[in-house]
Amino acid sequence: MNIHLHALLLSVSASALLLPSMCSAQVRGELGRASDVVIQGSILEPEKLQVKDDAKLTDLIKAPEGFRVEVFARDLINPRMLAVSDKGIVYATRRSVGDVIMLKDDDGDGKADGAVTVASRPGMHGIAFDGNQVFLVTIHDVYTADVKLDGTFGPLKRIINDLPDAGQHANRTLGIGPDGMLYIGSGSTCNECQDDNSENATVLRSRKDGAARSIFASGLRNTIGFDWEPTTGALYGMDHGIDWLGDEVQVEELNRIEQGKKYGWPYVYGMSGLNPRMDPPEGITLEDWAKQSTEPVLGYTAHSAPMQMAFYEGKAFPPEYQGDAFIAMRGSWNRRPPSGYEIVRVNFENGKPVGFEKFLEGFLLQQENGKYGYLGRPTGVAVGKDGSLFVAEDSNGTIYKVSYSSAATEQSADVGTIPNVVNDMPASKIAIDLVDAKNSDAIAVKSPFDKDGPIPLQYAADGDNASPAIEWSGAPKGTKSFVIISDDPDAAKPKPFTHWLAYDIPAATTKLREGIPGTPILQEPKGMKQGANSMGSIGYTGPKPPIGDPAHHYHFQVFALDTETLGLEPGAKRDAVLKAMEAHVLGEGQIVGTFERKTAAK
């Protein structure tokens, strides 16, 4: 297809940092299943510059008046994510090296005494502390370890070993939420595609032992930096925009990330902009997908490449910085002129973001020959216990320390408790115990497993994760459609755990083959819709009870309805389906299978 989007000429003024309206992109032609537009893009890669003298280097880094930038450590190869322990020790992950280094400043001179490796695994990237425990993440694995008195880590214990493949976006990150749960940023495998693993392009959520993992939010191309606003407990994250939509499109998105919501990728971007190169599954239009997606609260200059994000709760900076967020912008390779290569501040008022402003500049320089060069590509930000801000860049391997020069404001941070705003679903009964059927005759349900017998491995999450074939008979007269709901009442949370929601199944359909695809609307049987399971994906997800639990029971329930449609969009949740079924159920039936998980997937 031919594609053209006029580039927007954004200046670097504050107004340019807000989301542009999508009409200003001046799309020529039409978008949809036969797009006819043209896109102009750029490749411009600044060259790496090196300044060996600390004083000369920091003189080039520009900060607001009153702030001082110093080199805390250098020649670290590629420090990425930063974290500060309860004792005030700074740690940095090094993805290419595959380790975590500890950077103490025991003599208090404002510089690291040296770098000590405290953990080592290939691809190690995300790090978060929870008291005297540390959590670390690689592409596929999450580890935890005790933090010893000297700041080193005890033996690593792997708690998750099956995060999805990463592809283009291998930079997993994690954090501990106000609800005491573990949150993991899991990027897409590509720039724009239909990832076949529903856990890609998401923020995942699990218990701190790695169990009960689910999709917290989806449609997030690559959210590396995220953190919780201190007063409201709301989760905010910066998502990387799609490449090759033009120099000024797509903006980098600041999203308020909420449970169960989706944020557009790969079909929709920015303020409901429609991606001309991607079509949603059959039966859903780009406009439909946009209506179902949540728009960002703010946008920043396209291709800036947002990395780590941290809210400021220290007290060493002026009071107006309290509750604002800092974000490292690693910088572009595909925009003219280059964007990013800076630390930005997100201004929050009354717990809500109102705009961006530049905080640290000077990493990007235009040389006398007109070419661009960079002193560093910022990746990590973390607030120290003394209220200073630590900044990492991964190209020259430097960590900076930013402090405020007024001694009157310098005091230790007093971090309060961040409120929890995530409310899990209350415990409930299985669907068949909540629904009143008009006809007392039970529908007979059959599946490849015997009644109350074990479910074969191919239908489990650790197997093929394929839906089992299911067949039913004995539907009452007047049946116009069917609903299938598969519940596990033995799950700890949510209770029950819903593994499958299928509705608007035509009345002429009385069996489904195994391995139904996880598309929102099926072509065969035509018009059948699928809802969101408790994992957070669409369609079927197989049994995956905690290792060591007794066998769980999985209720495959079939309901006959007197209406052809529930009137719900695809992707509906269990409570919405049950509510729409009220007064329409003519008959019901179920088959129950069991599954016990004795070992983890290899």
Short description:
By secondary structure, the protein is mainly beta.
Written overview of the protein:
The protein is mainly β and 602 residues long. 4% of the residues lie in helices and 33% in strands. It has three helices and 38 strands. The longest helix is centred in the C-terminal third of the chain and has 8 residues, at 574-581. It starts with 46 loop residues before the first strand and ends in a 7-residue tail after the last strand. The model is unreliable at 1-29 (pLDDT under 50).
Considering DSSP H and I runs of 4 or more, what fraction of the residues is helical?
under 10%
Number of helices: 3
Specify the oligomeric state: single chain
Radius of gyration, CA atoms, in whole angstroms: 26 Å
* Low-confidence spans: 1-29
What topology emerges from the helices and strands here?
Blueprint: E1 47-48, H1 54-60, E2 67-73, E3 79-84, E4 90-94, E5 99-103, E6 116-120, E7 126-130, E8 133-137, E9 142-146, E10 157-160, E11 173-176, E12 182-186, E13 202-206, E14 214-218, E15 223-228, E16 235-239, E17 252-257, E18 268-269, E19 273-274, H2 286-292, E20 298-300, E21 306-311, E22 325-329, E23 342-349, E24 352-360, E25 364-366, E26 372-374, E27 378-383, E28 389-393, E29 398-404, E30 444-446, E31 470-473, E32 481-488, E33 497-506, E34 511-512, E35 521-523, E36 526-530, E37 552-561, H3 574-581, E38 585-595
Parallel strand pairs: 1-26
Antiparallel strand pairs: 2-29, 3-4, 4-5, 5-6, 7-8, 8-9, 9-10, 11-12, 12-13, 13-14, 15-16, 16-17, 17-20, 18-19, 21-22, 22-23, 23-24, 25-26, 27-28, 28-29, 30-31, 31-34, 32-33, 32-37, 33-36, 35-36, 37-38
